[in-house]
Design a protein that fits this description.
heterodimer, A: 131 residues, mainly beta, 9% helix, B: alpha/beta, Peroxisomal Thiolase, Chain A, domain 1, two-stranded antiparallel ribbon, Thioester_dehydratase-like (chain A), ChsH2 C-terminal OB-fold domain-containing protein (chain A)
């Protein structure tokens, strides 16, 4: 993770900005048009911030940047608008998790960047507090 | 197109080779594969390697290794995460098939133990989507765990349903002197193993270790001079999206299915003609999804093949006869070349305690990342 990239990706990481196709399909994150597609086929779209847990894992062997955390829980979320997104799960224990449970997006720290240890933030998901 | 044959093969033992460098391992495998063949005939070297930049802090491995071997020829490193070696083999195959060369060498090499586990995990995770998966903390093992968790839910299976893949791999690894783990495990040990990335436990996760494997590929002109040449009758690769969440069907390895179909079509054989098989099997879920993608099992039912002994050494479709990722050891980007070295030994009747009877045709499929790259080769006993 580095600062210029975090700045460039602030829309997707702070606001869950994705894209919607004229036929109703939704995708994340925003991407250039695929070969053969009109350049304006996909328009900016803010994704739903609630959904259900599609899959999850609790990692106990982690990479250097996350090695200080004994467990990193990562899930795939199926958002209310049908889009899948991979995200860390927070405010929960592995024993609470079940596929199909309702979850909601929150903005949380993703870690520190650069020699000044600047905190960078982004989306995580937690069990939904209120239906 | 020219026919392509495998002449020489060799591999190092898979170990934590703390006293040996990447070059030491590469040169041992190259010397073994080239044997008494005249090195001046070698027209190209293709090196499959995934982790060299980060763990050995060395790029330009083609020239680096060719120089150490005394080869002054085209030298290329091929990278596609865990599929690097298989894709290097395909580049070698294409060089000969196209008529550009008559003799090339393909090397798979990985030196993982110069760094500690967290750094190895970071290097392996480069095969994931950097902005969407690695940035949120996912590891390569975690990626497969996400697939396994969904698989168990969707098909209403217990985690133990996938245990027979690791048990089979360890049973075979016990008979392979080059294997990292030469001991058997049983269902109870598997069930009691600690979690690594739930639901993947320690005995359902391969160990990344050091090793190198090499093969010499030749055209028909040179194959006539080789004892027991093995023909590559099918070679195909395909790709799908790297990010799991962007796949239309999380539990379908699209690239594995496409490359397998293409390779079988090229070989002009049905999948039932395959006598034994090597897959990317760092976890039981990877083997199960690959078997389903190749059409050997209906979706959600691959674990039955393992439970019923179909994948055992004396079964209808022996899998991982040298121990697979789990027992032979996970040699990262070198794996695709190891698979072929092991299958050639089977087809030549040189597999010792793990020999499969009457093996004539074999399939090797190797995946990169969580199946975003897939490379399939089909090998056959040749008559030249």
């Amino acid at each position: 993770m580095n600062l210029p990239k975090q700045w460039r990706l602030k829309g997707q990481r702070y606001r869950l900005e994705g894209q919607r196709h004229s036929d109703g399909r939704v995708r994340f994150p925003a991407q250039p048009a695929k070969l053969g597609e009109p350049q304006d086929a996909w328009q900016p779209y803010q994704l739903a911030n609630t959904g259900e847990l599609f899959s999850w894992t609790a990692q106990r062997s982690n990479r250097s940047e996350f090695d200080h955390e004994p467990i990193v829980i990562v899930g795939i979320i199926k958002l209310a608008d049908g889009c899948l997104i991979t995200a860390q799960l927070t405010d929960c224990e592995p024993s609470e998790l079940q596929i199909g449970m309702a979850v909601e997006a929150v903005t949380r720290s993703w870690g520190k960047v650069g020699e000044d240890d600047l905190l960078v933030y982004g989306y995580k998901f937690r069990p939904q507090l209120i239906d | 197109m020219q026919q392509v044959f495998i002449a020489g093969t060799a591999c190092t033992a898979v170990r934590e080779h703390y006293d040996r460098s990447l070059l030491d391992l590469a040169l041992e495998a190259l010397r073994g594969a080239v044997g008494s063949f005249d090195p001046s005939l070698i027209e190209a070297l293709y090196v499959g390697n995934a982790l060299g930049d980060t763990l050995s802090e060395q790029s330009q491995l083609g020239a680096y290794i060719a120089g150490a071997a005394g080869l002054n020829c085209e030298a290329v490193r091929v990278e596609a995460a865990g599929a690097s070696g298989a894709l290097a083999l395909r580049q070698g195959y294409l060089a000969i098939a196209s008529g550009q060369a008559d003799v090339v060498v393909v090397l798979g090499v990985e030196k993982a133990t110069d760094k500690l586990d967290a750094a190895v995990q970071a290097s392996l995770a480069l095969g994931l989507d950097g902005e969407l998966e690695r940035a949120v903390g996912l590891t390569l093992t975690g990626g497969w765990a996400l697939l396994m968790q969904r698989y168990l839910y969707q098909y209403q299976l217990p985690a133990t349903a996938l245990a027979p893949f690791a048990i089979n791999a360890h049973a075979n690894g016990a008979g392979n002197r080059n294997a990292l783990y030469r001991f058997a495990i049983n269902a109870q040990k598997w069930a009691n193993a600690g979690q690594i990335a739930e639901p993947l436990n320690m005995l359902d996760c391969s160990t990344v270790a050091d090793g190198a494997a090499a093969v010499v590929l030749v055209s028909e002109r040179y194959a006539r001079e080789v004892a027991q040449p093995i023909a590559i009758v099918g070679s195909a690769s395909s790709s799908s999206t790297v990010a799991l969440a962007q796949r239309p069907d999380l539990l379908w390895l699209e690239a594995a299915a496409a490359s397998g179909t293409k390779a079988l079509q090229q070989a002009n054989i049905d999948r039932d003609a395959i006598d034994l098989i090597e897959l990317s099997d760092p976890h039981g879920i990877a083997a199960a999804l690959s078997l389903e993608a190749l059409g050997y099992a209906e979706r959600g039912q691959a674990s039955q093949l393992a439970a019923e002994g179909v994948i055992a050494k004396d079964g209808a479709l022996p899998l991982a006869t040298a121990g697979g990722y789990k027992a032979r050891g996970d040699v990262g980007g070198a794996t695709g070349v190891y698979q072929v070295v092991e299958l050639v030994a089977q087809l030549r009747g040189q597999a010792g305690a793990n020999q499969v009877a009457k093996a004539k045709t074999a399939l090797a499929q190797c995946l990169g990342g969580v199946g975003a790259t897939a490379v399939t080769h089909i090998l056959q006993v040749a008559e030249v």
